[in-house]
Write a structure and sequence with these properties.
The structure is a homodimer. The first copy, chain A, has two domains: 3-110, 3-Layer(aba) Sandwich (Cobalt-precorrin-4 Transmethylase, domain 1), CATH 3.40.1010; 113-235, Tetrapyrrole methylase, C-terminal domain (Methyltransferase, Cobalt-precorrin-4 Transmethylase, Domain 2, 2-Layer Sandwich), CATH 3.30.950.10. By secondary structure, chain A is α/β, with parallel strands linked by helices. The first copy, chain A, has helices at 19-27, 35-41, 58-70, 89-96, 112-120, 140-152, 170-178, 206-210; strands at 3-8, 30-34, 49-53, 75-79, 103-107, 121-122, 128-132, 156-160, 187-192, 200-205, 218-222, 228-230, 233-235. The model of chain A has no long low-confidence stretch (mean pLDDT 95). Chain A is elongated. The interface between A and B is large, with 76 and 77 residues. β7 (128-132) of chain A pairs antiparallel with β7 of chain B.
Amino acid sequence: MKKLYVAGIGPGDARNMTAACREAIEDCDVMVGYSKYVELVAPLFPDKRILDTPMTREVERCRMALELACRGETVAMICSGDAGVYGMAGLICELAAEYEPVEIEVVAGVTAALAGAAVLGAPLTHDFAVISLSDLLTPWEVIERRLEHAAAADFCLALYNPSSRSRHDYLEKACAILRRHKPAQTVCGLVRNIGRAGQSDAILTLEELSQTSVDMFTTVFIGSSQTRIIGGRMVTPRGYRLD
Amino acid sequence: MKKLYVAGIGPGDARNMTAACREAIEDCDVMVGYSKYVELVAPLFPDKRILDTPMTREVERCRMALELACRGETVAMICSGDAGVYGMAGLICELAAEYEPVEIEVVAGVTAALAGAAVLGAPLTHDFAVISLSDLLTPWEVIERRLEHAAAADFCLALYNPSSRSRHDYLEKACAILRRHKPAQTVCGLVRNIGRAGQSDAILTLEELSQTSVDMFTTVFIGSSQTRIIGGRMVTPRGYRLD
């Protein structure tokens, strides 16, 4: 049967890519993806045919991948991080119903929450929630409600898409909601350009975070009431007795 | 400086392991871990020295790894899934303060929420929460509060440790809490032995899930109000317009 991989490449460097993702790309006739992510992996597969599209063309990109697969090509649709976390796996599954049967294999990858957590220490060692602050596809009221409940339940949080040119104050708004339940001194972290050139990170308080400018390449971490700074790292202890 | 890797091997098969994890194990003098996880990767590194401990000896295992590193050995402490999600990264960071300085590198991996989601389709394409139902280290009231808020905020959920010999009714109890906010027909999924021999999965309703027996090798997925079955897969659409 015609085959379409939807594969998460991890945060960007070859080191965080799984063997299964590498095999999927090696196996494919053509790699499809958002140009910025394709650029990250293309050097690893110099002979691979590539079709890339700009960022906001997700439906077009997925249709292109499905059409190629229907024509008999083995296709790897690549996503940054994990294919299933704000990635293209959902859209491919939705659209596939309109096409002739194609074997779809979703290949999991290391999403920014996990890769960024490893940079900071161990902020997500206990229960956590992942929320995107982008309201392009989700009403802001839904995002606000999720922030509110996640804070009330004392989850650790990983926030994706914390900012963009048109949403420069969204992180500040999110922090204000979290502050209703979390103290100003809550331990937070930032990782920018995870696994890419110029990676940087910082640990700061929730109060400081609310006054910090971030860009769309940053993943934000909010601690629970248990999260502490230990040896310069952001750590959420799971509760083991240390004797 | 003395070096200690805390590396997530992914769900169990070599295919879901990252290159960075493989390099960490190749680089180490000795691999330390829970015997069940060590068994999964040991065949890939036949010449590697191994120290394994039983499941409930987490503090002992981490101390052993730190002591070996302090003696000058390069150590890889391996965890299943991601080292930072209910893994040993947090405990290593906590305990490291008691030892002489050791360079600690946390190596992220594909946690069961991501690997299981890929098996089912794309259940976690939108905001989600990860909750462990184990009350060995967390009071059940905290778990209950997190389930309640996660359901009220319409998160998708990945539930870890949904059962054990002494907690056979915990998933049923969790489902009863979720039912206060989520309809009986909410799309749910199960994946057992992800990436291991005998992997199996099922898609079912929340009502059916509450009457289903699971074991500790199962990861449970609860849909949001948007989650649907599309082409036999569990999918949470992100909200793209399909034209």
